[in-house]
Amino acid sequence: MKKYILFDHDGVLVDTEFWYYRAGERALADVGFTLDKDRYLRDMGRGLSTWTQARAAGVDERTVSRQRGVRDDYYQEYLRTEAIEIEGVVDTLAELSKYVRMAIVTTAKRADFDLIHEKRQIRKFMDFVLVREDYQHSKPHPEPYLTGLKRLGATREETLVVEDSSRGLNSAVAAGIDCAVVHNDFTRTHDFSRATHRIETLRELKDIILGQPSPTSH
Questions:
Q1: Strands (E) located in 15-100
Q2: Which molecular-function annotations from GO does this UniProt entry contain (predicted)?
């Protein structure tokens, strides 16, 4: 039985990944650059940024720096106005909290995370949250999840990571922690061959942590 769960955030607990992409797409369109979604998804899986394509096409660093701020503003606008709830998450966390201790390990920036959770009930189930400012190397580097393990005082064997992207999966694998990948339409083309479990919804986690894999896990 697993005693701890380290959750990714975007795409796992809230449905934000499309809106992050959309904000970057919009910021680049403002300077006449069209962001290719398929390439963005491939870049994302490798831990590269929204700006990789633009730099390769010759967009200068001053423009990238300016539009990064524009992107951040667009993203916060979407976080305030778009429906980003994932059905069943709060009920599932309440049930899981009977069996495990939980925390969030996210590449989200603190300002975005705090905005998302101003009026949500997710944080109360978590021992702590690690945001992008809390570690040096981002996913797919193992540091974020190793930092989470240390903070929990947990062993790799006692812990399960829950992710929705190959970048996050590779971070968990590099840290030596079992990983359950939850279905997300936005990242469905990623390579999840190294996942310990594949699940459709977070509701399936209870069976996994109790050592009773659900029929859809494989």
A1: none
A2: hydrolase activity
